[in-house]
Amino acid sequence: MSNHYDALGVTRDATAEEIKKAYRKLARKLHPDVNDEPDAQDRFKVVTHAYEVLSDPQKRRVYDTTGNENGNDNGGGGGNYGGGDGFAFQDIFETFFGGSGGGGGRGPASRTRRGQDALITVRVELREAVFGVNKKLEIDTAVICPTCDGSCCRPGTSPTTCDICHGSGQVQRPMRSILGNVMTVATCNSCQGFGTMIIDPCNECMGDGRVRNRRAFTIKVPAGVSTGTRIQLGGQGEVGPAGGPAGDLYVEMKVNNDPAFLREGDDLHATLSVPMTAAALGTELTFETFDGEQPISIKPGTQAGETINLRNLGVTHLRGFGRGDLKVHIHVETPTKPDAAQEELLKQLAALRGESYTEGKLVTSGGMFAKLRDKLGNL
Q1: Are residues 234 and 267 in the same domain?
Q2: Is-contact 86 69, C-beta < 8 A?
Q3: Which domain range does residue 76 map to?
Q4: Distance between the two ends of the chain, CA-based, in angstroms?
Q5: Which residues make beta-bridge pairs with 221?
Q6: Looking at the domain assignment, is residue 331 inside a domain?
Q7: Which residue intervals of 101-171 are DSSP H helices?
Q8: CATH number of the domain to which 232 belongs
Q9: Do residues 81 and 180 lie in contact, with contact meaning Cβ atoms separated by under 8 Å?
């Protein structure tokens, strides 16, 4: 007949924690799934039954007094090693899986949980994307209930301990197994595992601890953002249930098209239209950019499609330093409806240049042909 203390290898004055620690150590060693010795299963049943008795304060008191957990003097430690009235099944789960059967041992769940992340889209103008901007935003989100301050209860009241699980958030149920009657642990249906019940919920949030409201704040949009760029704002998302910490807010950028400038990477493109005479004779012009007016030199003989590069007048690099370039494409204006005097002058000019205005010339190499060939080759 086994002495329960000897079976676990502890003294009679061992604490509950020492008994639990000794049982876990032996259970890991003797469990049939990890020990294939012939007597391993019987020994495992012995230590399990010993722990079932000594871990229960009332059973241990009876055992220490009578030498038998049943309260009689017919010896100690015999009987149903499968569990008698039922042993704490969660302890086996804790031993082998670091947790407990059906969630036992964790204690009551917390009503307070982290809020959800949120995603919004913010539109900015191209000029704002070039230099950055501070944007004032308003979002409809979950905020802490101003009436109960996240407690979920009507002011002046508090949660009540569940009378089913007595605050543990869990209940034990007997179950038959190969080891005999074991106790499984399940979430308490009465309190949903919280251990407490809100009898008198807050009238404003209906016991959720949060309400929907509009919240205004300012976001700093960094220079260089493009459509699709996301900015993460930690703790600016929805407040969690029962006043839990807020999730994160993700702000996705949408850059509006600009009527005068086209963006390509961090470079800007624009078209400058100049009269035919200015392109032929050359001139000095001013060009309006996001940085203000900039001088542009049109060289004599400038052809349509030529590009003038203005360095560091493009979009600010989002990561790193500096800016892209502004590429100005020249468009040469050809008179569409010259009057009689203008037409006569153009004919005189053609004659002076030895040009025929009644026939064209096929370009076969160099010049415009080479440019066209290079352009088509890149398609």
Answers
A1: no
A2: no
A3: 4-85
A4: 92
A5: 133
A6: yes
A7: 126-131
A8: 2.60.260.20
A9: yes
Q: Are 320 and 297 in contact (CB under 8 A)?
A: no
Q: Tell me: pLDDT of 261 over 90.
A: yes
Residue 72 has pLDDT above 60, yes or no: no
Taking 3-state DSSP, the helix, strand and coil percentages for the chain, each rounded to the nearest 5, stand at: 25, 30, 45
- Quote the CA–CA distance of 54 and 88 in Å, as a whole number: 11
Q: What is the 3-state secondary structure (H, E, C) of 305-345?
A: CCEEEECCCCCECCCCCCECCEEEEEEEECCCCCCHHHHHH
Residue showing tokens 């029962």: 242
Residue 169 lies in a domain: no
Quick one: which of 125, 117, 120 has its CA closest to 139?
120
Beta-sheet pairing, 307-310 with 326-333: antiparallel
DSSP three-state, residue 157: coil
Give CA–CA dist 40/6, Å, rounded.
Answer: 17
Q: Give the distance, in angstroms, between the CA of residue 244 and the centroid of all CA atoms in the same chain.
A: 16
* Same domain as 143, residue 213: yes
CATH number at residue 62: 1.10.287.110
- Map tokens 């109960």 to a residue: 148
Looking up tokens 């949120």 gives: 118
Q: How many residues does the chain have?
A: 379
Global pTM?
0.61
Q: Which residues pair with 328 in a beta bridge?
A: 270, 308
Mean pLDDT of all residues in 224-248: 93
**Do 300 and 356 fall into the same domain?**
yes
Residue 74: partners with Cβ closer than 8 Å, 6 or more residues away? 68
CA–CA dist 108, 187 (Å, integer): 9
Strand positions, DSSP E, the chain: 87-88, 118-124, 133-144, 160-161, 170-177, 180-187, 196-197, 210-221, 230-233, 249-255, 262-264, 267-275, 283-289, 292-298, 307-310, 326-333
Using CA atoms, how far residue 296 sits from 78, 299, 304, in Å, is 104, 10, 15
- Whether residue 112 is contained in a domain is answered as no
- Buried b / exposed e over 96-131, threshold 16 CB at 10 Å, is eeeebbbbbbeebbebeebbeebeeeeebebebbbe
Does 248 share its domain with 280? no
Q: What is the pLDDT of residues 163-215, one digit of tens each?
A: 989 999 998 877 776 666 777 888 898 899 999 999 999 999 999 999 999 98
* 255 token code pair: 């850059």
